[in-house]
Every structure is written in C-alpha cells, then in structure tokens.
Amino acid sequence: MSQPRASIVVPALNEAAFINVFLNRIEESVKIPVEIVIVVDDAKDNTISAVEGTPRTIHSVRCVVSNLDGGPANAIRYGFHSVNTDVVVITMADGSDDPRVIDDLILLIERGCAVACASRYMPGGQQIGGPRFKKFLSKNASRILRLIAGMGTHDATNSFKAYSTNFVRSVGIESSKGFEVGLELTAKAHRSRRFIAELPTIWIDRSVGNSNFQLCKWLPRYLKWFFYSFGKKINSSN
C-alpha cells in the first residue's frame, strides 16, 4: 500500500450488511493511493467487525470510534480530526455514491480547489430513486444558489464531495447532527471566494437497509446554510 494522497471519510451506522460491497467498489474504482477511514459512533457498531473480518490489499482501511455526540455531522467532523492528508473525500457507506469519480475529485483539490462536488444535477449527472420531495427540495435549492447566489455548483446539497483539509480546518464545521455539512462547507467556500468545482455523478438510492436521512428534522439546519450563502463575501483567510 502506497502512502495515501487523500483520505476517504465514511460515516457509518451498523452497515455490516453492505460495508464490504462498498469497500470492494472503492478498490475497483479508485487508483490514487488513499486511506479509508470509517467513522462510527459506538464501539459495538457491527460495521467494525465486518471490516476487520475482511483484509484489504490496495487501500488501507481503519475504523475509528467518534468521541463526539452521535450523528453523521459529528462523524464527519471527527473524521477530519483523524486524518493527516491534504485532501478528504466524504462519501456514504450505503453505496448510493459512485466511487468512479473519486480520483478526479481528488485531483481537483490538488489543483487548488477548496471544494470539489460530485453533482447529480449538472449535465451528465443523474439521481435514480429516493424520495421525490427530497429530490425536489435539493435540486431547486441548489438551482437557486447557483443562479441567484452565484455558487459554483449545480448540487450544493450533496454530501459526496472532496475538500482541502486546510480549508476545512480554517473555516471549521459548525453542523452537529444531520447531513448538512456538505452545504455548510460549500457555502463557506462560496462566501470566502474559494474555488469550487464539480463533476457529474450518478446517484442510485441504496438497495440494502434503510436511509438514516431525516428530512423534517434536519431541514431547518439546511435552511440556515442556504440563507448564509447569500451573505457578503468574507476574507478567504477567515
């Protein structure tokens, strides 16, 4: 295994039934040397035993137990604190994201972008399955942010993104519960005039298990960062 150029941070909650399928797809698709950091909330999470029972040959894989409160946002925050690479890719363990774009997302960050988005809504992208109302809100919120706020992506709300680690540590993550971290960090990059890039991706709703996304509970947090995006630009060093 080569020295990793990037870290793939994966929040997981009892994903034993699917985690090895997910890891096999990463190994098949990602050619840049990476480490895969799977973040769980509890040492008893069944994801850990499933990962430990299947050795990997291409990319290093480790599970870490977050010492923050539960939830995907804190798992992502803990993941950033657990890595030493210059690039972090956030993706979900349920197989909905397409790992074939990960290499190109990493290269965009290495070329100087703060955020590189895997976009379902740009030409060439697609979303297959999933709740229609959730898709309607996500797609149209992203459209408003692009056309009116001038944000440099068709898909600000997607969690599947790559980030400059230095950028994330400079602006911090304030989200603590839901999946809105992707919107928060994209909004902060937009407000601080940092480069945002995107690539088309095909998202397919998970085929095993149930989604942990709770739209009604987390919608107010998305709205916070939606409206934040329209604020005055700030110094990029902040």
In short:
The longest helix has 16 residues. This protein is 36% helix and 18% strand.
What's the topology here?
Blueprint: E1 6-11, H1 19-29, E2 34-40, H2 46-52, E3 60-65, H3 72-81, E4 87-90, H4 102-110, E5 115-119, E6 126-128, H5 132-147, E7 161-164, H6 165-171, H7 181-191, E8 196-200, E9 202-204, H8 215-228
Parallel strand pairs: 1-2, 1-4, 2-3, 5-8, 6-9
Antiparallel strand pairs: 4-7, 5-7
Question: Would you kindly provide a written description of the structure presented here, covering whatever features stand out?
Answer:
- There is one protein chain.
- This protein has helices at residues 19-29, 46-52, 72-81, 102-110, 132-147, 165-171, 181-191, 215-228; strands at 6-11, 34-40, 60-65, 87-90, 115-119, 126-128, 161-164, 196-200, 202-204.
- It has 238 residues and is of the alpha/beta class.
- The strands form two sheets. It has a seven-stranded mixed β-sheet, with helices on both faces. The chain has a two-stranded parallel ribbon with strand order 6-9.
- β1 (6-11), α1 (19-29) and β2 (34-40) form a beta-alpha-beta unit.
- α7 runs parallel beside α8.
- The mean pLDDT is 92.
Alpha carbon gyration radius: 17 Å
| DSSP helical segment count | 8
Shape: globular
Low-pLDDT windows of residues: none
Care to count the β-strands? 9
**Beta-strand residue percentage:** 15-25%
The overall pLDDT, averaged over residues, is: 92
Q: Specify the biggest β-sheet.
A: 7 strands, mixed
Intertermini distance: 36 Å
Helicity range: 25-40%
Structural class: alpha/beta
- Which strand order does the major sheet show? 3-2-1-4-7-5-8
Helix-strand pattern: EHEHEHEHEEHEHHEEH
